[in-house]
Amino acid sequence: MIAIVPARGGSKGLPGKNIKNLFGKPMIAYTIEEALKSKYITEVVISTDCKEIEKVAIKYGAKSPFLRPEYLATDSAKAIDNYIYTIDRLNKEFAYDIKDFVLLQPTSPLRTVEDIDKSIELFKDKNADSVVSYTEEHHPIEWHKYITEDGKFENIFEEKLLNRQEIKKSYFPNGAVFVFDYELIMQGKYYSDNSYAYIMPRNRSVDVDTLEDFRYIEFLLQERSNY
């Protein structure tokens, strides 16, 4: 199975985050290295519009048959359109025969090869259309509110006064691992009635979007190195 690592150059929240030095190596290296340890992944392909990212990714073992076009690297571009573009070109121009694939975002550097392999095994065992990594939400979603421009509360859900223990657990996607059947992606979907969640712990579920996220991951990696 092939792994695709999408990493555009124009990050707004934390400029240059994909190749920013994280505890001694570029952040993207963590994703590529774990993917290459997988017993199921045969190749890691970087999908980027940035030659600097491409160079770093190749150094750590990824392949880059082509650069992503600019129109698929804007803030308004849909990620799913890039996946379709990438796989379509690999199949038609480079003699690949991709029917399913793993997507690994470089902004989840704490995910391990175990997470990758177990997600793929779940995908295969269930003959699934997709498997997406999730983590437990520690605060009930029923507590969430919209806040109006003048600072007032606006309900998202029907208001029920329940104790925390009475509320069913909920989970949210952590962005770490996606395993897709290409036919599902071609329909413009990530989920079907035959999709499953791979549950990850919170300490491996940090997705880097801001400098604060990045510093928190540095702290967790430091803690990990102490054991």
TrEMBL record:
Organism superkingdom: Bacteria
One example GO MF annotation: N-acylneuraminate cytidylyltransferase activity
SUPFAM superfamilies linked to this entry: Nucleotide-diphospho-sugar transferases (SSF53448)
Annotated CDD domains: CMP-NeuAc_Synthase
Keywords (A to Z) from UniProt: Nucleotidyltransferase, Transferase
Pfam family, one: CTP_transf_3
InterPro entries: CMP-NeuNAc_synthase, Cytidylyl_trans, Nucleotide-diphossugar_trans
Record-given protein name: N-acylneuraminate cytidylyltransferase
Origin species: Arcobacter cloacae
